[in-house]
Amino acid sequence: MQALGRAPSLTVDSLWVAGGLYGNPLALAALVDAYDRDAGPKALVFNGDFHWFDVDTEDFAQIDRAVLSFRATRGNVETELATPTADAGCGCGYPDWVSNETVEQSNRIMERLRATAQSLSHVLPELAALPMQMLVNVGDERIAIVHGDDSSLAGWGFSQEALSTTQGLAAASAAFERTGVQVFASSHTCLPVLRRLSEGRTVVNNGAAGMPEFFWRKIRARNANCALSMEGRFVWRAVREFVY
Question: What's the CA gap between 202 and 143, in Å, rounded?
Fold first, then answer.
């Protein structure tokens, strides 16, 4: 949580956060098009796992160039590509409720993706240099951008499953107390969450920008506070054309 205890990286009126792009160029184009139409001081931050299905070398390079032209933090995918950990697989940190089949499939994808990344070795230092967390001011509010949860890059504390339990809600509330932020913007879990806790503190998790669900979130200053929206647009067409 070191980054969350420092001064904000930037201050904007409109913050767009997109996690889990998963190498989907059609979802990326739709997101950037919407972002370009937004006026005023703004920033777009990709909060990790922007690589995944882009196992083709040209696709990987295209996604990498586009994402790193904006601000970005790394997810478990980029971390395992840049600095592999023995026996970590994809580094997803899957909880017990995820099937063994899903774990095995993810690890096979990671093997193919790692081979692609190693053929473009010049990108690995750039991925390794990306921060794991980022603190941004939207108006007067402090927004913590993470990948998993407040304490782990591959944490599931901000998942639908965790936040549906009393214990999970208590842990999330404690995270807000420790960090003093108003919003946690996360990703990692592939399922979206928009959960408001006490005193307006909010967990907003877009799930995955490159999969068929809400694929970006925007945090906008409003009267020195911030208004949250999870854009109600889906990427079924983009995912169908890209994955299938």
Answer: 10
Give the pLDDT confidence of 53-75 residue by residue, as tens digits.
999 999 999 999 999 999 999 99
Say if residues 157 and 168 touch (Cβ distance below 8 Å): yes
Q: What's the pTM?
A: 0.86
Question: Which ranges of the chain does DSSP label H, i.e. alpha helix?
Answer: 25-36, 57-68, 76-82, 100-119, 124-129, 160-163, 166-179, 236-243
Which residues are within 8 A (CB) of 122 and not within 5 positions of it... i.e. 6 or more apart?
none
Q: What's domain 2-243's architecture?
A: 4-Layer Sandwich (3.60)
Virtual torsion, Cα 154, 55, 213, 151, nearest 10 deg: 10
Taking the C-alpha atoms of residue 28 and residue 18, their distance in angstroms, rounded to an integer, is 9
CA-to-CA dists, residue 113 to 33, 49, 63, 173, 244, angstroms: 27, 12, 13, 36, 18
Question: Which region, left, alpha or beta, applies to residue 40 given φ > 0 means left and ψ of -120 to 50 means alpha?
Answer: left
| pLDDT over threshold 60, residue 87 | yes
